[in-house]
């Protein structure tokens, strides 16, 4: 537990540091948010009044502390272009992005773990050749290109899936999941390709260890040795790679949501960047950083569960 508390303290310190970096970078961007909201033809006294209302006439450090205080209370500020609370905007978009990311991760694990395990258990076999070809293709082809191919090859050809858009969860679970299926597949294939390669390599390495050969010599079957001794140890590098792939998944979400015109966080970030809605960009960037760092913290915590050696080290 001491190791987890130590990692949590590092996580909090890192989040404070990254929030300061994001705030300073956004503050250095040229442009007046008051002019963005009111237009360049607004009267000077009106612009000055809005700057005072937004706190833009305050010292930089005061604005940073006010932002942190707002974050602690769930107040992320007001969007310059939508004139809507940023927390409301992000909440609406998360209802699309979080299920999409969850589906993509679930699908990538459902492909990678069995495929990589069977390929590693029998190197140079038929399954291994399929896994190797899948890994090379999945890593080589970018996810937005896979998305375009899915639209052309499946959505337009069969009509089973929409080519874009999201009907909303109010339209029913099945229409919503149908709209997220192809985007999730496009996100999952590159992730699954990387994880398949890592799983295969880990299974081959662990299978050659002395404790596995000892188990086989004592009469354990190949399947029993694979499930009981190989897989638990092979999961450590897989979990490590899964944590590292989170940032790639988030970057892919921005592209895929725009390819499929999904109203998610990626689309919000793109629109905010195009409209110079700095307060939205600031909060979205911090949110993505929190997701990446938070999931890496969870991965570190999982090490303690997966690897018993970490529970006895001091």
TrEMBL record:
It is found in: Cell membrane. The chain crosses the membrane at residues 94-116, 137-161, 173-195, 234-256, 284-306. This is Peptide ABC transporter. Keywords: Cell membrane, Membrane, Transmembrane, Transmembrane helix, Transport. GO terms for cellular component: plasma membrane. Belongs to the binding-protein-dependent transport system permease family. The lineage of its organism: Bacteria, Pseudomonadati, Pseudomonadota, Alphaproteobacteria, Hyphomicrobiales. PANTHER family: DIPEPTIDE TRANSPORT SYSTEM PERMEASE PROTEIN DPPB-RELATED. SUPFAM superfamilies: MetI-like (SSF161098). Residues 94-299 form the ABC transmembrane type-1 domain. It comes from Martelella endophytica. One of its GO terms (molecular function) is dipeptide transmembrane transporter activity. InterPro entries: BPD_transp_1_N, MetI-like, MetI-like_sf. Pfam families: BPD_transp_1, BPD_transp_1_N. It is a multi-pass membrane protein.
């Amino acid at each position: 537990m001491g190791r987890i508390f130590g990692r949590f303290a590092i996580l909090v310190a890192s989040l404070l540091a990254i929030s300061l970096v994001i705030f300073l970078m956004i503050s250095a961007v040229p442009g007046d948010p008051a002019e963005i909201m009111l237009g360049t033809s607004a009267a000077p006294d009106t612009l000055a009044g809005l700057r005072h209302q937004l706190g833009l006439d305050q010292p930089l450090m005061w604005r940073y502390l006010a932002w942190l205080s707002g974050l602690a209370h769930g107040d992320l500020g007001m969007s310059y272009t939508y004139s809507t609370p940023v927390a409301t905007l992000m909440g609406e978009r998360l209802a699309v992005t979080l299920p999409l990311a969850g589906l993509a991760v679930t699908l990538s694990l459902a492909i990678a773990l069995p495929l990589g395990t069977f390929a590693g258990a029998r190197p140079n076999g038929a399954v291994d050749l399929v896994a190797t070809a899948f890994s090379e293709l999945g890593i080589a082809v970018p996810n937005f290109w896979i998305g375009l191919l899915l639209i052309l090859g499946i959505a337009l050809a069969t009509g089973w899936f929409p080519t874009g858009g999201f009907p909303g969860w109010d339209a029913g679970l099945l229409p919503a999941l149908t709209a997220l299926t192809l985007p999730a597949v496009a996100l999952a294939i590159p992730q699954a390709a990387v994880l398949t390669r890592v799983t295969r390599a880990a299974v081959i390495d662990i299978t050659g260890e002395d404790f596995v050969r000892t188990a086989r010599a004592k009469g354990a079957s190949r399947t029993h040795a694979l499930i009981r001794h190989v897989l638990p140890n092979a999961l450590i590098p897989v979990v490590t790679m899964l944590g590292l792939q989170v940032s790639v998944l988030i970057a892919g979400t921005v592209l895929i949501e725009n390819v499929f015109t999904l109203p998610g966080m990626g689309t919000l970030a793109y629109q905010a960047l195009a409209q110079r809605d700095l307060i939205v960009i600031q909060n979205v960037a911090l949110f993505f950083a929190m997701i990446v760092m938070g999931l890496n913290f969870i991965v570190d915590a999982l090490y303690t569960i997966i690897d018993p050696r970490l529970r006895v080290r001091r």
